[in-house]
Amino acid sequence: xxxxxxxxxxxxxxxxxxxxxxxxxxxxxxxxxxxxxxxxxxxxxxxxxxxxxxxxxxxxxxxxxxxxxxxxxxxxxxxxxxxxxxxxxxxxxxxxxxxxxxxxxxxxxxxxxxxxxxxxxxxxxxxxxxxxxxxxxxxxxxxxxxxxxxxxxxxxxxxxxxxxxxxxxxxxxxxxxxxxxxxx
Length: 184
Fold this sequence. Notes:
Helix content is about 55%, strand content about 10%. It has eight helices and four strands, in the order E-H-E-H-E-E-H-H-H-H-H-H. Strand 1, helix 1 (about 10-20) and strand 2 (about 25-30) form a beta-alpha-beta unit. The relative contact order is 0.14. The model has no long low-confidence stretch (mean pLDDT about 95).
């Protein structure tokens, strides 16, 4: 059975959400980050940098939430996607982790980046329900989680981006989201 390693308040929740969406059985291994369990040799064999999340699926080890989402999409995704659709999903996952997250969560760039990133994203989401195709994918998990965290963690108002607000409300109403983010 797949094992997901994470901390109490970590990006492992994003991976949990997608595992729940895909109905993949998994064990969640909660590492006590305060006690340094993520720096012990057993976990460093999974991720030599001691960061979470990490997964073990059989003999395969993977770390970095975006890479894990892409792996789960490829292995457990429910539809056969074209190469172009898979590349588009990868594009959105990388965008979430490398552009959207830092653009919004790094305070020094937030004022400049927020309208540059959220304006076009609001337009895109005003025209379609999901980022790629007609069903939820790893792209929506990666981007949707970042968008959901904005008002939750930063207490920023997204009222000027109604399509983003509607999108995050649709995503957060999903049973898999509710289960993964329970207690947040």
